[in-house]
């Protein structure tokens, strides 16, 4: 069978900057690199400080996304930056986002005794 007709071999590992871009959590690879080097992402409980950190399927990422912290399990290492539906199939959220109703933004301040 010709080599071109075979499906690509599964990818075992991928750099975190490239993964964030491939699964569409970062809009550019450069943004993924900057995000990884800030130290705000945890990989299996350890702080990530290098964009070259290897990610494997089954790894757990804890990362800030918008105004909350999300826990993400990597299900499959993607081969490319495909459409959004393909990207979303590569990971799943392990936590449930806290939905804020209008006017809930200052409840935390009331709990600490600050006005």
List keywords for this structure.
Structural Genomics Hypothetical 15.5 Kd Protein In mrcA-pckA Intergenic Region, Chain A, 4 helices, alpha+beta, globular, disordered C terminus, 115 residues, 23% helix, 5-stranded antiparallel β-sheet, 7 strands
Give the SSE map.
Layout: E1 13-15, H1 16-22, H2 29-37, E2 41-43, E3 46-48, E4 54-56, E5 60-65, E6 68-74, H3 84-88, E7 91-93, H4 107-111
Antiparallel strand pairs: 1-4, 2-3, 2-5, 5-6, 6-7
What would a concise description of this structure say?
This protein has helices at residues 16-22, 29-37, 84-88, 107-111; strands at residues 13-15, 41-43, 46-48, 54-56, 60-65, 68-74, 91-93. It is an alpha+beta fold and 115 residues long.
Secondary-structure element string? EHHEEEEEHEH
CATH superfamily: RNA-binding S4 domain
Cα gyration radius (Å)? 18 Å
Distance between the termini: 72 Å
Mean pLDDT: 82
Helix content: 10-25%
Report the count of strand segments: 7
Strand order of the largest sheet: 3-2-5-6-7
CATH architecture descriptor name: Roll
Could you tell me the CATH topology label: Structural Genomics Hypothetical 15.5 Kd Protein In mrcA-pckA Intergenic Region, Chain A
Query: What is the CATH class designation?
Result: Alpha Beta
Structural class: alpha+beta
Which blocks of ≥5 consecutive residues have pLDDT under 50?
101-115
Question: Proportion of β residues?
Answer: 15-25%
Cα shape: globular
User: How many domains would you count in the coordinates?
Assistant: 1
Major sheet characteristics: 5 strands, antiparallel
Put simply, the count of helices is: 4
């Amino acid at each position: 069978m010709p080599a071109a007709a075979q499906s690509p071999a599964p990818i075992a590992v991928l750099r975190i900057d490239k993964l964030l871009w491939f699964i569409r959590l970062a809009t550019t690879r450069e943004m993924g690199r900057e995000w990884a080097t800030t130290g705000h992402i945890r990989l299996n409980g350890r702080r990530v400080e290098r964009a070259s950190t290897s990610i494997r399927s089954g790894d757990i990422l804890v990362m800030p996304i918008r105004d909350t912290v999300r826990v993400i399990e990597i299900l499959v290492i993607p081969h490319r930056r495909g459409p959004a539906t393909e990207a979303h199939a590569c990971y799943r959220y392990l936590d449930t986002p806290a939905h804020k109703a209008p006017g809930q933004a200052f409840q935390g301040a009331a709990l600490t005794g600050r006005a």
